[in-house]
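USER: I would love a firmer grasp of how sequence relates to backbone shape in proteins. This is the protein in question:
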Amino acid sequence: MSDLSQIVKAYDVRGVVPDQWDEPLAEIFGAAFATVTGASAVVVGHDMRPSSPGLSRAFARGAASRGADVTEIGLCSTDELYFASGHLDLPGAMFTASHNPARYNGIKMCRAGAAPVGQDTGLADIRALAEQWSAGGLPPGAPTAGTITSRDVLHDYAGFLRSLVDLSGIRPLKVVVDAGNGMGGHTVPTVLDGLPLDLVPMYFELDGTFPNHEANPLDPKNLVDLQAKVRETGADLGLAFDGDADRCFAVDERGEPVSPSAVTALVAARELARNPGAVIIHNLITSRSVPEVVAEHGGTAVRTRVGHSFIKQQMAATGAVFGGEHSAHYYFRDFWNADTGMLAALHLLAALGGQQGPLSALVAAYDRYASSGEINSTVADQAGRTAAVRAAFEGQEGVTFDELDGLTVAAADWWFNLRASNTEPLLRLNVEASDAATVSRLRDQVLAVVRG
């Protein structure tokens, strides 16, 4: 039996093509996906990577061999695939490796209505079948193979997003968008069409080799070009999308990054205005400003572990209208509880264009604390180092501990979280405090123990 543990992760499939996986294996994954979901029809899309069309078509052949009718939507963003899954009420598969380098590719899978497929919700079963069949060959398919047809849903996707945010009264804005040669270059022009925007496009050419910079806006070095262009053109804001365009980052009119926590708080306030008293989800390393803003606007904040499967579970369980993560993933009840950076971007445009001040002033109300950002340390003994950090703070007056996800240590005017990576020998540290000096002191204190 083949071992696919290197490419089947907690929430998706990801690996180097063709070294770790290829089109024959993609066909097997398609057959396994159709079998595990029991689907009579599925929808499949792909990003702009050179290997994506072939892998996507192979997956479609595999699903069709089990009798499933396949709708291919072709080039799309990940949230456009989620839209298709929700709108058509079909299980879906998106071929992308998000922000990973060009030689990588992967599959994000969902059940009908964009419900996530992870280790506990079908991915382990898909892997088991794929391992069995890659070793012994695909068994005979369905008596009648499914059909494979094409459908373009880009305009339906754009129209649906625009129906969720009122942009009718916004003032003219100059907006720089860095698509990073990813799928934002495909979706942004259609979604923003007809709005009073002076759009300054950067790297809209679809190119899965990422010739200009990595399509990972979480890394500050990949925002440098956008920041410079915003300052150079006197733009009102800048937006940066990752490779599969499901995450969106913003910079203000000065070229300064806007914290995803501030965006979470801003969108939460807007959603609570439409849904008084609603639940808002946030993961435990978003800023304290998020639950504060939610409470101030009459909502209920629910704190979760980091990761889209936890957020989506809590969205469904609580009926939450919105959820946000520090990594710029934004989840909406109106979007089948799935994440869409594009919808968050429309909220940002509506908020900015609905008043006269600059973005820096608008978000200041939602960005109340100093923070370190995520700092990674390579350690051999994650549990031992975490225990040592806890011991260093044990017994201090007014300090509390919780272990919802890693170790969170908190006091009146600061907190930090130390989490182990699931896939690498890393500890991830996030620190937040009322001032930068306290952040620096805590950061150095914790890292001295972690790296000591």
